[in-house]
Amino acid sequence: MTIADIAEKLNFKIINEGEMKTREAKKVFCCDLLSLAMSKLPADAAWVTVMGNTNTLAVASLADAACIITAENVCPDENTVNKAKEQNITVLKSEFPVFETALMIDKLINA
Amino acid sequence: MNEAIKLEYTISDDDFTRAGEASGDLKDKLKKMGVDPAVIRKVVIAMYEGEINMVIHANGGKITVTITTDEIIMELADKGPGIPDVKLAMQEGFSTAPDNIRSLGFGAGMGLPNMKKYSDEMTVETQQGVGTTVTMKVKL
Ligand SMILES: Nc1ncnc2c1ncn2[C@@H]1O[C@H](COP(=O)(O)OP(=O)(O)OP(=O)(O)O)[C@@H](O)[C@H]1O
Ligand SMILES: [Mg+2]
């Protein structure tokens, strides 16, 4: 399922589009510690986290995450949003906690 | 490829917004060279953790990457405070990262263990008050 479809169906707010219309999220992954995420994040995963800073972007890009979804209404700062635009990384925002957000995505992509 | 390729990166101190750029650049170059994605993954994890450590713990430094026909060598040299007890620092979960750094998502104490795990060979030379040089090799 494309990230755009996931965003629409689950009502996530779009912080930065990136390649959401064409790129698919094949898995969902949760972690807030960058060095753990770096080694464990599966490629093409939707990464749900409460960390929305430029380092999250760096790890997402290096680990080939499909997109970043900040949970708990965490809003990345302006600098991070600009950087996401520059690097074409999809960033979405969910009002729900990490677990609920990930569960919703998992149910949707495995339906 | 007959000749070794050498890449050099200067890592500036405390610039968290740029941290990871050297690793990103190396990743792009290896991709263009057609290196096996599994090897790229190992190199990128090891390099990123090393790069971040230089920014967080050592006020930046210099990374030299050498790509030969059979291996990728990453040498990360800094003039930071050095690591007093390398064995302890290598343990999973050990971290001296301060709170402001932890609040960014660092400080799991997994960086050095990741570097060890994802490289095929790693050496740490360090002297307190002088600096640290980490050398990692990944086989192609
Ligand atoms: N280049 C360095 N210079 C000085 N000290 C270092 C250096 N690299 C690592 N250290 C020390 O070793 C500790 C462990 O490093 P490691 O990368 O495993 O964890 P961390 O950086 O604290 O957290 P994480 O990498 O999980 O975000 C650090 O907290 C720091 O005290
Ligand atoms: Mg580290």
Summarize the SSE layout with pairings.
The complex is a heterodimer of chains A (111) and B (140).
Chain A: H1 3-10, E1 13-16, E2 27-30, H2 34-40, E3 45-49, H3 54-62, E4 67-70, H4 78-87, E5 91-93, H5 98-109
Chain B: E1 5-11, H1 21-32, H2 37-58, E2 61-67, E3 71-78, H3 86-89, H4 99-102, H5 111-118, E4 121-127, E5 131-139
Antiparallel strand pairs in B: 1-2, 2-3, 3-5, 4-5
Helix pairs in contact in B: 1-2, 2-5
Largest interface: A-B, 21 and 24 residues
CATH architectural category of chain A: 3-Layer(aba) Sandwich
- CATH level 3 topology of chain B: Heat Shock Protein 90
Helix-strand sequence of chain A: HEEHEHEHEH
Q: State the low-pLDDT regions of chain B, or none.
A: none
Portion of residues within helices of chain A? 40-55%
Cα end-to-end separation of chain B: 13 Å
Q: What's the CATH first level of chain A?
A: Alpha Beta
CATH topology of chain A, by name, is Udp-n-acetylmuramoylalanyl-d-glutamate--2,6- Diaminopimelate Ligase, Chain: A, domain 1
Total strands of chain B: 5
Strand order of the largest sheet of chain A: 1-5-4-3-2
Characterize the largest beta sheet of chain A: strand count, sense, and whether it forms a barrel: 5 strands, mixed
Biggest sheet overview of chain B = 5 strands, antiparallel
Distance between the termini of chain A: 10 Å
| Average of pLDDT of chain B | 95
Helix content of chain B: 25-40%
Shape of chain B: globular
Strand percent estimate of chain A? 15-25%
Number of strands of chain A: 5
